[in-house]
Every structure is written in C-alpha cells, then in structure tokens.
C-alpha cells in the first residue's frame, strides 16, 4: 500500500485508526466521574499530541537515523510559528499560506545553521546548534521585540493589514485561522450517555498533516537515502573511505527535520495564533530530545509516543489539586484519607515535574529501548502466536538505539 | 581605562565561577564520558548545604514577648536560636554569621556521599549505554533532586549573606592611583576568586602529582589496558565522581552570598557549564578552566554600556557567539583531545 | 433533549440531559450555539485558576491559589466572609454566584505564555470554566487575555504590572485590578524627590523585555519631570543571574541613584549584587548613593533579605494597611493559613470577588453582560480605598502605595513599611496617554 512494505503499511494504518478514533480513545471515562480528570480528549491537548508528534518525528529523522544530536531544534519550531503568525497578520487567515511560508522559512534557517554546525560532529555539533538556538531565543525575547513581540509574544491585533481578508469580523473581533472557511476551532460534540466526545476541525486537520508526515518519514527510513543516513551513524569514516561525502546527506536530513519542526510550529500557530520566544528556549529543544529518547530513538512510532507521554503529564497531572485528591479518596476513613492524600500530593499539581523526572528515570532504567520497548514486551506477553509474523511494535523498530 | 580594568576584574570573577562549575563537569563529562545533566543539580545541592547549615544554626525555640501582639492580635512570640543558649548570644550570632564559610566543611562530606551514591547507584550502569540514555536518566535525576529541594525550601530565593566581615568592597582605584570609588570590588567576590583558584589548583595537583591521579588519567586514555594491568579502575572512577560532586558543591556553597540560591539555579547554570566545557575542549581540564575565564571576561566586556550602544543585544548572545566562533576555528575547542565525544 | 442551545459540560454535570442522552446520541455543534461559551448549569459554576506552580514564581503562584481558595470559600458562604462584609456592593450573599455553588479548577502556567494558554484552554475546553484568572507575569497575562477574548470567556488578570496589559494589548474580555508601570512611576517620583532631592542623576538597569521597557519609560519620565537627570539606561538579559558587570560601572558614570527595573529573581539578584558592591555606602556628588526598586513584592523582598532595608519602591497593596477591608482580609487569610497574604494574593482575591459581584449585578454569566457590569464600576472596601474600573481600558484606578524596606523587621513578613499612600488622582492618566497608545479593546466576545 502506498509503496510501503506490508508491515509498514500495517503500522501506518494502525496509527491512522488510532488518530481517527482518538476523541473516543482519549475520553474513556464518563463526564463528571472521578476519573474524568484523566480524560485527554479535548481539542487543545489532542492537537498538541499530534503537533508535538510531528516535531518529534522530524527530530527523529535527524537524530534517530544519523545520530547527530541537535540541541537547538526548537529554534525552527519558533521560526515556523513566527512566520505563520506574520502570514496571518499580513496575508490571510487561511492556514495553507502560513504553513507553506513557515516550512520554507524554517527550511532556510535549517540550511544555514545546519551548513555551519555540520562542520563539526558529536558533542561539538550539539553545542553549536544549542548556541544558535539560544542566540535566537535571546534576540527574539529582547532586541527583536518589534518583529517577535518579545515577552508577550507575537499576536494578532484588530488593526492587522490583512491583504486577503478582513482585519476584523463583523462583530468587531479578530478573525480566527481556518481552511477555506472551515474554522480550526470549530468542534462538534457527540453525547453518548454520560460520555461527551469532541471532534475538532483543527485536530483532524493537524492529524491528517501528521499522518502525511509519518508516511513521509517511513518512506525516508526505508529509502536508499535513509540507508545512507544510517551508514553515517554507524561508521562515518568507512563511508569516507568509500569515496562518499556524507555531508550533503546529513545536511539534507537536518533541513528536512528542521522543516518538520517549522511545520509543527505553523500548526501550533494555526490552532492558537500566538508565537512566543519561549518556544525557542533550550528547555524546549531539550523537551523534543527527551520525547524522542523516552519513546525510543530510531523507531518510527517511538517519538510520537514520547511526545504524547510528556504532553499528557504536563496538561493532566499538573491540573490535579488537593481538592480533587480528597474527592477521590473521600470513601476512605478520615485519617486514612488524609494519609493517602498526603502521600500522593507531592506527585501531582505543582509536583508534576517530580513525576515526570521519576518516569524518565524509570523508563530508561527498566526499558532501555524507550516506551516502544515497553509496548513490545507487553505485545510479547500477550501475542505469542504473532511472534513469527513480527508484530507491529517490532516492525516499527528499525535499529537499536545506538 | 578604569572602566576596562573594572571589567577585567569582573571577568576574572565571573570566569572563576564558570571555571569552577565547568571543572566538576569536565571531570565527569569530559573524561568519564558521561553526559551528566544532573551536574547543575549538584551545584544547587551544594548551595543548599549552606542554606541548610544556616537553618540548622538558627534552629530556634519561641519566647513570648510580653506586651506585644502579632498581626492577628495574638500574643507575640520571638524566636531565639538554641545556639544562643549554648554558646551565649555573641558567639552564637557569630556562628550564624559565618555559616557560609563553615558550610564548606559541612558540604564536603555531604557532596562526596551524594556523588558516590549517584555513581554507584545509577551512573555506573550507564557507562556503556548510549549518550541518549545518559541524558534521559541524568535529566530525570536532576528534576527529581530539584523538586525535592523545592518541596522543602520553596521556590523563592533564600538570602544567604556572607559574614559581616566581608561586607562592602575594596577600592582598587585608590590603590592603583585612580580616583577613589571608580574601581571597587566586593570583598566576597575576591574571596570567591581566591577560593576558585585554590580549588582548581588542588584538583590539578591531585591529578598530576599523585599515583591515584596518574592511574585515573591513564584510565581515561585507555580504560581497557589499565584494567588488564589488574588495577581496579572502577573504584577510582567512583572516587572521581565523588570528587567532581564535591567541586560542584563547593562552587555552590561559596556562590550563595553572590546570588540568593533557589531550587532551579542548577538548571540556569547547566547549559552554560556545558558550553564552557565543550569550548574548552572535551577531555581537557586546563581547557575548561581557560574557557571559563575567556567567556567570563568577554561577557563582562559585552555588558558595557558603550559596547551595547554600538551593537544592541550583544550582551544577550556574546557567550554563544564566542562559542560558535571558537568551535568553528578550532575543531576540538580550545584544548580538546582527539576522539573524545566526537561521534 | 432538543436543547441545542445547551453548551458543554456544565450541563452534563447537572444531569439534565444525562438520562435523555442515553437513548439518543445528541449532536451539539459549538458554532451553532446561541448564548455564550460554557454557560453554567443550575447548580454549580466553574472558575479557572491559572497560576505558576512550577518555575521561579511558584511561591507567588501558591499564594495566589490560597487567595482563590479563600475567595471561593467565602463566596460559598464558608469562613468569616472576609472582604465580602466590607465590600461596598452588598449583592453577594454567600450562596455562591447567582445561586450556583462555586467550583474551581487549577492549572500551571509555568510562567510561559504557551503553557499558560494550554492550561487555560484545557480549563475552557475540558472543564467548562466560565472565567479564567491568575498569572504572575505580564507576558502570561497578555497571552491568556488574548485567548480568553477569542474563546469568549472573561479574564480577570492576576499580578501583571506592564502598561501593555491595559495598553496596547488590552482586550474587551480582560480586566486588570493590579496597578501598572505608569502608576508606579507617578507615585514614586514625588516621594523620591522629597526624600532625595530634585537634582539626582539616575542610572537605570532594565530587564530586557516588555515589562522592563514600560517600567523604565514610566519611571524615567516621572522622575525627569521632577528634575532628575537620567545618566544611562542599560538593558540586562532576562536569563542573567550575576549582575556584577552591569553594576560595577554605575559609580564611574557619575550617577548617584540606581533604578532597578527588575522583577522576581532578576530583582533579588541585582539588588543583592548592588548592595554587595557597597553602592549604598558611597557618596557621589556630595550625596548618599541610593537605590530604587519601582515594583516591590513582599515575597521578593524576602528573597533579597537584609538588602532591601531603606529602599523605596511601590506596591499594589500591603497587609499592614489599616482600612477595614484590608484588616478583614488579613484576618481571614491569616487565620486560615497562619501568615499574612501577599499583594498577589490580595489582587487575586479581589478579582474573584469583583467578578462574582459583577455577575450577580448583571444577573447573567454572559461575558458581555459581566463586562458591562464591570465597566465604569466604582467600589470601595476592598483594601485600596475608592476604586474605579475604567471603561476605556479595563484598568482599575486606585491609590498606590509607596513603600520602603523596613530597617528593623519584627518578623519574616514584616519587611516593608508604607511611606505614603499616593491618592488616585495623582496616578490617573488619559486613556490615550502616549505610554498606552496602540491597540484597541475591540468588542466583547460571548463566544459560541
């Protein structure tokens, strides 16, 4: 199917099904129940899942295949966001031109930064990319404020000179991004008993983009080009001896992954038209590194899982407060309730970072291949009969992490 | 002229802080080859050793103040440190005043213990794992350590002043024949500079002139051969880790009067210390120290009003700009060894 | 069952359609709704408290959250009622808002605009929050305010001091009770001229981002109007921790006053460094060298320790105020938590009460109705004296406190003393004042 091998096609299909039914899968608990706190099926978080998934897929093309660890990848995400918001301000609220410009701009930046940084390898390369990203963050936050909006971020205003489109809606508000009249924030809801499922235009748009990106990434992984990148990772010297110059290949990988980041940035701006400089801070670059490693470096699906896990923690665990805890354990006798709440409390709400840190450590200690390996182990437990056929989790894995 | 002398002083002071932090990192990262994202956390724990000690000294019991009330109208109480009861008020106050320097003695065993536990319990299993795994596990550890500190000490900075004896500043200008008050420098920063020089010197001497140091250096160069000689290099690496933790911790202790410590101060320094180590060159101790001073001095110059007026924003990017230029002109940083972390 | 005008989750919590929905799936399209976003059900209403819980401002956020919890308790009739009893409006009666029990959800802004918007969005989309409030930086406030405008809910800003929040980035759905840079400058300048004379030479160190710019501009123009001269203004990076290289040249410049346009960690560090350099012991131009911190907060003063002694600054509110409202608030906060509230806590508590009161007076939760009730509303008894919510820019106008670091603090909370309460007339400006130009409120948005 689509020029893919059977197992890859199956993986793509699986991802497509999961993404299509995400509004159901992520909302397993009925509204108003105590467990509804864990529901993640609301538009904003679902959008974030797929957008950061794209970011991580792109990052993995560089890091997973070539082994070059860029520690400044968030810079391209930021460039993409800024480009997209400027497009909204100046041209039109249609997301397509914004996405096109964002991808082009981030590709351009990636070409420039990649060309310079790839003159070095290993840690020296990482620090070069980090330095470029930090410079971009610092300038965007301060002296470039007229272009970037600085601390408050680049926002739409009521007097934007939008060439194709209106500055204001009839109601006197700022128009919202859309695709030929289909507003990104539009949602439809399905009420089934006490369950509510939300189907959001923006989510499905981002999800389709993500599936296309995922498909492209599979093609890259399986192509001769991908083969070449893997050769660079395993032994660059040997490649040199065969008379091949690896640099154009790594640079191409760098630019492609930079464009993925720009695409993610543009989608973020399309869902929520604001671009802030913090998107380029080193912690944001570090986050995509962590997402990729957490999910499984060099695997196809791993980075998406990693992105989902981190965003889930950030948005769900951080919202649990002591009130909710007391609500959950209200059935316990008073003393016991307070005791249980006191034990769990440091890990939720303002302590969500602690849980995140523990999960990082736990995964890397017990699942050296990341979350994908966890999936494989579970699959191995339950699906022995499929073992001969190479289950989907395994097919995702192209190569161990190193 | 006086402005330039002043910024050189500033640069040396900043540089000594950078060099000291980078020194600990390069022992672990540059030589043991472990990408240690928890290094900033070690620095932070060192700083909180000073906070903890000053809190321990100030442990108090409440005494009623007759005739006064607090903001809710309840009878007012005053905290009297136990240490006043034991040593008398003036000695007690002096001990509290000197808690930062005294914390050095407290921090050394604590930090060595932290380092050794970290290495034995966690890092040891990651020497042969890919760098990616090292990043994830040490980053996770850094977050956990940070959150533990935040849980007990809060997120706000905690003022930890230097002893009164070091308050105020020294007038270099008067000494060098300039107008008074043109070149002044705080006593505590001079102390920090001297302290950094001492620690750096001691670490170099230790690695250069002792048998232990010789074996470790040999182990860095060729771990396998040293192992084949029947020398237990693992144990020595553990000690190295403890040493690196102690250096980071001491840098933290002495830094507390300069900036009030808070739980995320380690993360603030983390990126910078990686930049310093890499600019200095992987696997080179002198390189890290040199890079620390170079970046410190250049940062100081870039923050001069006259410079910012010419190139706006230069103070924001100087460190990274210099790092890029150095790494592009010198492939392995200032003094890097060939083949360390290049792939 | 055919209630297509019903919105979102609040409805479901009431159980009104739960039974009917079981049988037939109901299709609700957000765009086809009449009414407004997240209209609450009959029994409860959900507010969203979006405060920094991680990062450098976590302690400030924690204090804000305490204030919100206290406000909710009071609105629902618990506790001693706090400032509800001193508030000039008497429509709040302890039965929630419009008879609905007040519930709340919390989130973490991380002091990043992206994270803050994500958190606010989840409150709106998932929890059905009808109003979002909180934050402890202007970047976050401006970002979330714009989001609330777009989504059609009310935003009651927490701690945000930049002129831009109600200046060039103002929004019809956003309201700010906290004071701003301009007011700080206008209130401080006369006090400074009084204390230090009118022929001072000032040296500004300014945090290199929007809030820093507006504060520098405000303080500069007000002090220059008093006769001061500005020798230099140097921008410092947000990520700077050691300010020595910025502070060392101050004395050489011939300046005799240092203005630190810094907040939070920046301010703690720059002030500590400046004192360490012994600036305050120096004499320049025959005058004692002085340091000024335009925006003070008690939590920051605590971080800077003894260094704040004798240093002037401004603040929105302080717990040592002796009016009835402040006393009532300090009492109920202190009784519940054991220490006095910060200014961040105060503004958040007041914003919650003001919102509840506006809904009650409007008789509706619809954002446009609430906004109308708040616009041009005059009230008293909430700790700042007579206050006006100006309709032109949704900024509160009230007295501003000029404070000074206390020489002999009697407790760890008693760090600032009030020097002067600058009357509101002195800090009022025209809506089209140059420091607030650009931007427009737009029209209020009821959302779907």
UniProtKB/TrEMBL annotation, chain B:
It is found in: Cell membrane. InterPro entries: ABC_transp_permease, BCAA_transport_permease. Its main location: membrane. Keywords: Amino-acid transport, Cell membrane, Membrane, Transmembrane, Transmembrane helix, Transport. The chain crosses the membrane at residues 16-35, 42-60, 102-123, 190-216, 237-258, 270-298, 310-328. It is a multi-pass membrane protein. Belongs to the binding-protein-dependent transport system permease family. LivHM subfamily. This is Branched-chain amino acid ABC transporter permease. It comes from Thalassococcus lentus.
TrEMBL record, chain C:
InterPro entries: BCAA_transport (IPR051010), Leu-bd (IPR028081), Peripla_BP_I (IPR028082), TAT_signal (IPR006311), TAT_signal_bac_arc (IPR019546). Transmembrane segments: none annotated. Residues 45-406 form the Leucine-binding protein domain. Residues 1-30 form the signal peptide. Keywords: Amino-acid transport, Signal, Transport. PANTHER family: LEUCINE-SPECIFIC-BINDING PROTEIN (PTHR30483), PERIPLASMIC BINDING PROTEIN OF ABC TRANSPORTER FOR NATURAL AMINO ACIDS (PTHR30483:SF6). Belongs to the leucine-binding protein family. This is Substrate-binding protein. It comes from Thalassococcus lentus.
């Amino acid at each position: 199917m689509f020029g893919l091998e059977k197992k890859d096609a199956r993986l793509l299909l699986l991802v497509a099904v999961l993404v299509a039914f995400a509004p159901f899968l992520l909302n397993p608990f009925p509204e108003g129940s105590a467990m509804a706190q864990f529901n993640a099926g609301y538009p904003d978080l679902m959008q974030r899942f797929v957008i950061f998934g794209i970011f991580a897929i792109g990052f993995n093309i560089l890091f997973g295949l070539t082994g070059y660890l860029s520690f400044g990848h968030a810079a391209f995400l930021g460039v993409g966001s800024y480009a997209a918001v400027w497009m909204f301000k100046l041209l039109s609220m249609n997301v397509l031109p914004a996405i096109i410009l964002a991808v082009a701009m981030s590709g351009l930046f990636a070409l420039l930064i990649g060309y310079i940084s790839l003159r070095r390898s290993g840690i020296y390369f990482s620090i070069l990319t980090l330095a470029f990203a930090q410079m971009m963050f610092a300038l965007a936050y301060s002296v470039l404020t007229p272009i970037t909006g600085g601390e408050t971020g680049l926002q739409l205003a009521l007097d934007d000179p939008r060439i194709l489109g209106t500055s204001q809606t009839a109601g006197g508000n700022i128009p919202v991004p859309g695709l030929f009249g289909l507003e990104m924030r539009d949602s439809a809801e399905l009420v089934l008993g006490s369950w509510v499922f939300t189907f959001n235009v923006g989510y499905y748009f981002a999800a389709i983009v993500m599936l296309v990106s995922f498909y492209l990434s599979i093609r890259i992984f399986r192509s001769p080009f991908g083969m070449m990148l893997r050769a660079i990772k395993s032994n660059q010297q040997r490649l040199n001896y065969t008379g091949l110059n690896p640099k154009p290949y790594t640079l191409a990988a760098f630019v492609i992954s930079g464009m993925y980041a720009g695409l993610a940035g543009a989608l973020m701006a399309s869902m929520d038209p604001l671009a802030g400089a913090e998107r380029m801070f080193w912690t944001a670059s570090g986050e995509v590194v962590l997402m990729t490693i957490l999910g499984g470096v060099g695997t196809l699906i791993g980075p998406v899982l990693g992105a989902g896990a981190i965003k889930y923690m950030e948005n769900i665990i951080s919202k649990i407060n002591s009130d909710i805890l007391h609500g959950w354990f209200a059935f316990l006798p008073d003393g016991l309730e307070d005791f249980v709440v006191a034990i769990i409390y440091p890990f939720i709400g303002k302590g969500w970072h602690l849980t995140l840190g523990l999960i990082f450590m736990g995964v890397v200690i017990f699942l050296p291949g990341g979350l994908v390996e966890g999936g494989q182990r579970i699959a191995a437990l339950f699906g022995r009969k499929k073992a001969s056929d190479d289950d989907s989790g395994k097919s995702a894995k192209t190569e161990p992490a190193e | 002229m006086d402005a330039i002398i002043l910024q050189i002083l500033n640069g040396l002071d900043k540089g000594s802080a950078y060099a000291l932090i980078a020194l600990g990192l390069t022992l672990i990262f540059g030589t043991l080859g472990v990408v240690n994202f928890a290094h900033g956390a070690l620095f932070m724990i060192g700083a909180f050793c000073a906070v903890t000690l000053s809190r321990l000294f100030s442990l108090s019991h409440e005494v009623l103040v007759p005739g006064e009330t607090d903001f809710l109208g309840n009878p007012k109480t005053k905290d009297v440190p136990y240490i006043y009861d034991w040593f008398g008020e003036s000695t007690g106050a002096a001990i509290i005043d000197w808690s930062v320097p005294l914390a050095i003695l407290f921090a050394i065993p604590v930090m060595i213990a932290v380092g050794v536990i970290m290495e034995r319990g966690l890092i040891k299993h990651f020497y042969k794992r890919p760098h990616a795994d090292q990043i994830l596990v040490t980053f996770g550890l850094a977050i956990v350590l940070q959150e533990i500190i935040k849980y007990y000490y809060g997120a706000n900075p905690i003022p930890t002043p230097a002893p009164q004896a070091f308050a105020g500043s020294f007038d270099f200008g008067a000494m060098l024949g300039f107008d008074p008050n043109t070149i002044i420098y705080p006593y505590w920063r001079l102390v920090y500079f001297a302290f950094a020089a001492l620690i750096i010197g001691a670490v170099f001497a230790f690695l250069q002139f002792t048998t232990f140091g010789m074996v470790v250096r040999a182990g860095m160069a060729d771990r396998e051969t040293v192992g084949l000689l029947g020398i237990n290099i693992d144990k020595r690496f553990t000690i190295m880790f403890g040493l690196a933790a102690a250096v980071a911790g001491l840098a933290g202790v002495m830094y507390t009067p300069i900036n009030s410590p808070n739980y995320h101060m380690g993360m603030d320094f983390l990126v910078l210390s990686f930049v310093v180590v890499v600019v200095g060159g992987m696997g080179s101790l002198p390189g890290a120290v040199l890079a620390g001073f170079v970046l410190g001095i250049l940062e100081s110059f870039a923050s001069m009003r006259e410079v910012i007026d010419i190139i706006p924003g230069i103070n924001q990017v100087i460190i990274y700009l210099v790092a890029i230029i150095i790494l592009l002109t010198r492939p392995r940083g200032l003094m890097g060894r060939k083949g360390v972390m290049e792939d | 069952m055919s209630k297509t005008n019903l919105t979102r989750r609040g409805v479901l919590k009431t159980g009104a359609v739960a039974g009917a929905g079981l049988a037939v799936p109901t299709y609700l399209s957000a765009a086809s709704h009449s009414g407004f976003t997240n209209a609450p059900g009959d029994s409860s209403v959900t507010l969203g408290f979006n405060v920094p819980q991680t990062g450098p401002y976590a302690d400030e956020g924690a204090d804000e959250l305490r204030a919100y919890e206290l406000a909710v308790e009071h609105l629902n009739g618990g506790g001693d009622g706090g400032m509800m009893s001193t508030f000039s409006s008497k429509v709040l009666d302890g039965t929630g808002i419009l008879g609905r029990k007040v519930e709340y959800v919390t989130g973490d802004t991380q002091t990043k605009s992206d994270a803050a918007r994500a958190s606010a969005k989840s409150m709106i989309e998932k929890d059905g929050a009808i109003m979002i409030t909180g934050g402890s930086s202007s970047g976050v406030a401006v970002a979330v305010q714009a989001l609330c405008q777009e989504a059609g809910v009310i935003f009651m800003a927490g701690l945000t001091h930049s002129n831009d929040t109600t200046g060039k980035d103002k929004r019809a759905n956003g309201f700010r009770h906290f004071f701003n840079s301009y007011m700080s400058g206008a209130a401080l300048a006369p006090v400074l001229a009084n204390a230090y004379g009118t022929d001072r030479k000032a040296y500004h160190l300014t945090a290199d981002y929007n809030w820093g710019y507006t504060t520098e501009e405000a303080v500069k123009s007000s002090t220059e109007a008093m006769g001061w001269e500005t020798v230099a203004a140097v921008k410092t990076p947000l990520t700077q921790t050691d300010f020595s290289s910025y502070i060392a040249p101050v004395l050489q410049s011939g300046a005799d006053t240092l203005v630190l346009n810094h907040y939070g960690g920046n301010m703690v560090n720059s002030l500590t460094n400046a004192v360490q350099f012994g600036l305050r012991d120096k004499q320049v131009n025959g005058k004692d060298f002085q340091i000024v911190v335009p925006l003070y907060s008690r939590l920051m003063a605590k971080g800077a320790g003894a260094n704040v002694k004798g240093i002037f600054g401004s603040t929105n509110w302080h717990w040592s105020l002796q009016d009835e409202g402040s006393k009532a608030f300090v009492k109920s906060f202190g009784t519940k938590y054991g220490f006095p509230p910060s200014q961040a806590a105060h503004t958040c508590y007041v914003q919650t009460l003001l919102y509840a009161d506006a809904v009650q007076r409007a008789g509706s939760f619809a954002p446009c109705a609430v906004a109308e009730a708040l616009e041009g509303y005059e009230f008293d008894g909430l700790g700042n004296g007579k206050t006006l919510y100006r309709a032109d820019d949704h900024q509160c106008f009230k007295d501003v406190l000029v404070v000074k670091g206390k020489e002999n603090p009697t407790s760890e909370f008693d760090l600032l003393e009030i020097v002067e309460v600058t009357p509101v007339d002195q800090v009022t400006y025209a809506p089209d004042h140059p420091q607030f130009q650009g931007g427009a409120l737009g029209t209020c948005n009821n959302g779907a």
